[in-house]
Design goal:
- This protein is α+β, with helices and mostly antiparallel strands and 114 residues long.
- The protein has a domain of 68 residues.
- The chain is 48% helix and 12% strand.
- A 3-stranded antiparallel β-sheet has the order 2-1-3.
- The longest helix has 26 residues.
- The radius of gyration is 19 Å and the shape is elongated.
Length: 114
């Protein structure tokens, strides 16, 4: 094989991989997954024991919807996954759902029935 064919093959592989990642993110960001994350957040907020009544947030991080409360965010900061200077106020800008205010701020599913 020549060098030109190798370069063309690499470009083709990169295009295929980028399309695969785009489709996977689009699938994981659909309405049913968002509803599932909201139900999970509501269940955690209404839970029992020490977590009962704790405010829970839904974020789209790492290609999927994740539910965090304040303790989870502090734990992620200590682990170094979230930078130390990022406050909960800054994270609230990317929050898609909040269990205390029940506000759906998802840009794509803002008027969807949860």
């Amino acid at each position: 094989m020549s060098i030109k064919n190798d370069i063309k093959m690499k470009k083709l592989i990169v295009k295929i991989l980028s399309k695969f990642l785009e489709l996977r993110t689009r699938y994981r960001a659909n309405l049913s997954h968002f509803r599932r994350a909201v139900r999970r957040a509501e269940r955690l907020a209404a839970g029992n024991g020490a977590m009962k009544g704790k405010r829970t947030y839904v974020y789209f991080l790492g290609g999927k919807y994740r539910t965090f409360n304040r303790k989870d965010i502090q734990r992620l900061k200590k682990a170094g996954i979230i930078k130390q200077h990022i406050t909960l106020e800054k994270l609230s800008r990317i929050c898609l759902y909040d269990t205390q205010t029940k506000v759906n701020s998802h840009p794509q599913f803002k008027y969807a029935k949860l």
